[in-house]
User: Which sequence fits this backbone?
């Protein structure tokens, strides 16, 4: 299988991913973790961005906890993920929303 990258106006390759399913998850500061459904079978990368600082985790049954992976509010980050895995999040000090986008 050959992969062709998109090109800019100078015919240089652009490393870009298509936008897939987007899900918003409400985060609270309680001890509970908010979780999204398992990602699609073809998803290998997810984009995470939250409007508040939060803890995030990725896995089969992830638990977002203090001391784990911290995502700063307003910062978009991309993570590798395997089909069937889930994304979990928990707000650190202020409730908010975590946006999870499956990238194609």
Assistant:
């Amino acid at each position: 299988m050959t992969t062709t990258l998109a090109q800019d106006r100078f015919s240089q390759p652009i490393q870009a991913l298509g936008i897939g399913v987007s899900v918003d998850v409400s985060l609270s500061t309680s001890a509970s973790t908010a979780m999204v459904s398992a990602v699609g079978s073809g998803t290998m990368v997810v984009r995470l961005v939250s409007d508040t600082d939060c803890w995030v985790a990725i896995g089969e049954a992830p638990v977002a906890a203090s001391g784990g992976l911290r995502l700063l509010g307003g910062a978009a980050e991309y993570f590798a993920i395997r089909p069937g895995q889930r994304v979990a999040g928990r707000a650190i000090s202020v409730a908010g929303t975590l946006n999870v986008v499956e990238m194609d």
